[in-house]
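Re: that backbone. Tokens:
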């Protein structure tokens, strides 16, 4: 029996509904664009050794993804962050590539669906942005978790 955990976008749905009633009309793609831009700029900031700015932008991008229900944008945006860490310090390149491979497998096998694992990955990367000297350890832990979650998804489908 598998436990289903609610993701932040589900938990935030009542709050989002109240906020959206007060906002002026906006295009449906706006939260997805803000989430994607926040994650991309966070990866660039981390790559240029501005980890605290990258952490703030990452948090803003995650908030926009959670509020706007930007699942595929979140999954693909998280793939950019290990690249930023590898760019910032070449000694982290192997860990960054391992994490990128794990996230690619997770995203491919999950079909872009966002789960609690995706949000745990996001929180782990936010922690890595706050503690960049611990990125390699966190990358391996997050990567192993992503591979396990992907393997569980394959086992459930019986492929």
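Recovered sequence:
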């Amino acid at each position: 029996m598998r436990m289903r955990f609610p993701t932040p976008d589900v938990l935030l749905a009542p709050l989002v509904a109240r906020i959206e009633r007060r906002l002026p009309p906006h295009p449906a793609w706006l939260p997805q664009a803000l989430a994607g831009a926040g994650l991309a700029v966070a990866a660039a900031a981390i790559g240029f050794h501005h980890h605290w700015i990258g952490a703030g932008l990452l948090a803003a991008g995650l908030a926009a993804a959670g509020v706007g229900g930007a699942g595929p944008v979140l999954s693909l945006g998280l793939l950019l962050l290990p690249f930023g860490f590898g760019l910032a310090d070449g000694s982290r390149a192997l860990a960054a590539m391992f994490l990128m491979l794990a996230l690619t497998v997770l995203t491919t096998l999950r079909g872009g669906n966002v789960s609690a694992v995706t949000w745990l990955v996001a929180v782990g990367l936010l922690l890595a942005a706050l503690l960049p000297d611990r990125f390699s350890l966190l990358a391996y832990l997050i990567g192993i978790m992503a591979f396990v979650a992907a393997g569980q998804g394959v086992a459930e489908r019986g492929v």
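The chain has a mean pLDDT of 83. The chain is about 80% helix and 0% strand.
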